[in-house]
Amino acid sequence: MRQSRALLVTHGLAKEFQGFRAVNEVDLSVVEGTVHALVGPNGAGKTTLFNLLTGFLRPSGGRITFAGHDVTGQPPERIARLGVARSFQVTSLFPQMTAREHVELALQSGTGLGRRLWRSDKLMRRFSGRAAELLDEVGLVRLAERPAGSLPYGQKRALELAIALALDPQLLLLDEPTSGMGLEDVDRTTALIARIRAGRTVVMVEHNMSVVGSLADTVTVLQRGEVLAEGPYDQVKSDPQVIEAYLGADVA
Ligand SMILES: Nc1ncnc2c1ncn2[C@@H]1O[C@H](COP(=O)(O)OP(=O)(O)OP(=O)(O)O)[C@@H](O)[C@H]1O
């Protein structure tokens, strides 16, 4: 059997904001091919950790290694180029552009041809086959010609996933993929992530524990910037420290 490889590793990762440690000495190891969830009460440092991993914030201390490269303090573009794609919690679509155009543009930007050429129809046709596949993968093939602004919320998020997948990432980072969704969209998105995870590595910040329970191989629980517990969901959810952290947060 192929040995499991740690694709993303952090050692003693830290981030301070004016002397306040939002992320404190975090050691993380994300194994290739797994879904790894980051959970924790509000203010635990999940978003800050995510921003460190993607280069949107520079760490105050520690190291980050991705696929054998030291990416500590590297800018987001470089980390993206190495194969890390991120979907955002807040939607970042162009309302007038169709779903298909979004994916084609993302495919083109991944080729290094530059965004300035994006209006060239001839060029875009080169990407149309793969764009159709990706839209199909996220269940949007029938909505391909709709302006993104007119898509329902759940489908906007699905389109963002297709855009992230267009970069053919080694690692996909999902920032609260089901936030703000009704039950039906939550179920649809969970099924979608279960499908697209095949052959990929996923790190996700997620508040919905049933989503975490059904998708994650490993769960890291953060509290006040530190790793409180880590392991398979069933183990972590019955950890007394984790229960207390969540109950404490609820009471607060
Ligand atoms: N730019 C900043 N300047 C100062 N403090 C910050 C900054 N960003 C985050 N913090 C603080 O760091 C701590 C961790 O915040 P973070 O947003 O990472 O938590 P979180 O786990 O993502 O929370 P939530 O689940 O509410 O999104 C919080 O106390 C927050 O107030």
Task: Describe what is shown at a glance.
This protein is α/β, with parallel strands linked by helices and 252 residues long. The chain has a domain at 93-168.
Give an overview in words.
With 252 residues, the protein is an alpha/beta fold. The protein has a domain at 93-168. 37% of the residues lie in helices and 25% in strands. The chain has nine helices and ten strands. The strands form two sheets. A six-stranded mixed beta sheet has the order 6-7-8-3-9-10, with helices on both faces. It has a four-stranded antiparallel beta sheet with strand order 2-1-4-5, covered by helices on one side. α3 (99-109) runs parallel beside α5 and α4 (121-137) packs across α5 (153-166). The longest helix has 17 residues, at 121-137. The mean pLDDT is 89. Adenosine-5'-triphosphate is lined by residues 17, 20, 22, 40, 42-48. The site of adenosine-5'-triphosphate has 11 residues, from β2 and α1. This is ABC transporter ATP-binding protein. GO terms for molecular function: ATP binding. Pfam families: ABC_tran, BCA_ABC_TP_C. Keywords: ATP-binding, Nucleotide-binding, Transport. Residues 8-249 form the ABC transporter domain.
- SSE string, helix = H, strand = E? EEEHEEHEHHHEHEHEEHH
Mean of pLDDT: 89
Number of helices: 9
Q: Provide the β-strand percentage band.
A: 25-35%
Bound compounds, please? adenosine-5'-triphosphate
Poorly predicted spans: none
Structural class assignment:
alpha/beta
Largest sheet: 6 strands, mixed
Pfam family, one: BCA_ABC_TP_C
Keywords: ATP-binding, Nucleotide-binding, Transport
Organism: Streptomyces dengpaensis
Domain ABC transporter: 8-249
